[in-house]
Amino acid sequence: MSGERQPVWVGRVAIVSLPAEIDLANAELVRQDLLSVVAQGATRVIADMTATTFCDSAGIAALVRVVQQATARGSGLRLAASAPAVTRVLALTGVDKLIEVYPSVAAAMADPGGQVAAEPAPAAPGQADSEGRAPQPG
Fold first, then answer.
1. Residue 50 CA: distances (Å) to CA of 9, 64, 73
2. Which tens digits make up the pLDDT trace of 31-45?
3. Angstrom distance (rounded) from CA 33 to CA 8
4. What share of the chain is helix, strand, coil (3-state, %, to 5)?
5. How far apart are CA 70 and CA 81, in angstroms?
6. Structure confidence at residue 113 (pLDDT)
7. How many whole angstroms separate alpha carbon 39 and alpha carbon 7?
């Protein structure tokens, strides 16, 4: 990794701590660091932005490129962000619709949803499906 912190691995999930400020000066390094763990076989990457207090358009663009490339490789990206300035930028740019955003790393780890290659199990005959819908007559 190019950054000062090494990722933390929990199984095949990689947690990457991002810097306090993400801007034009370091956005490319952030992108490379996140994609590095995807290349190492992470099925999910959690970008820990809980210490990040500023993220400009270069940082947003880097995150969008990461999620596109990670998805193409069968991986997923989640953000853990809590600073109001950061979560506001993610919401205003619509990135929070493209990438799941959680208030903490623990919340991002705990949510089983959005798993790559996970499909709901089919409902048994006469039972509701995984979304609570009643079976339809055939």
1. 17, 18, 26
2. 999 999 999 999 999
3. 12
4. 35, 20, 45
5. 19
6. 72
7. 13
CA angle 25, 13, 2 (to 5 degrees): 30
pTM, entire model: 0.79
Using the structure block, give the residue that is written with the tokens 């600073």: 83
Per-residue pLDDT of 66-109, as tens digits, reads 999 999 999 999 999 999 999 999 999 999 999 999 999 999 99
Take residue 83 and report the two structure tokens written for it.
Answer: 């600073």
Residue-wise DSSP of 53-67: -EE-HHHHHHHHHHH
Query: What structural domains does the chain harbor?
Result: 8-110 (3.30.750.24)
